[in-house]
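Problem: given the chain below (160 residues), write out its structure.
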Amino acid sequence: LQGTPRRVAEMYAEVFAGSEQDPLEVLSVGFEEGHQEMVVLKDIPFYSMCEHHFLPFYGVAHVGYIPKGRVVGIGNLARVVEILAKRPQVQERLTSQVADTLEEGLHPAGVAVVIQAEHLCMTMRGIKKPGSNVVTSATRGVFRKNAKTRSEFLALIHDR
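Solution.
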């Protein structure tokens, strides 16, 4: 146990590293491509810490946007999820923050985010239901206004 306090401190610094980062910075580098069709990055793994019980929740995020010509590297979409997940969070806020960050940083025609996660507060304590998943979504712009666009996104992320 002698080194445990140091290891715990280092672990928390890593787990909450997103608190010191601005996710908009990773979206500042993009390029004009003229692309105006849907871009989807699905199955982005993430880990976060629930601020209610300080227990982890983890899962995958699916992110889509429709550019108005300007695109960013697809790795930057995963970085936004990573930065925001590495903060004390609740899944609902995380989902909205990813959508809002992409909307603000990219100025696209629309943004859609779906997050599916298992919460250890439901697995190892409380109701004790391992395998239960919480699914949250956030839509902005054309994804919110147009049911066909939203349906296309949902079909793409569920196509295995």
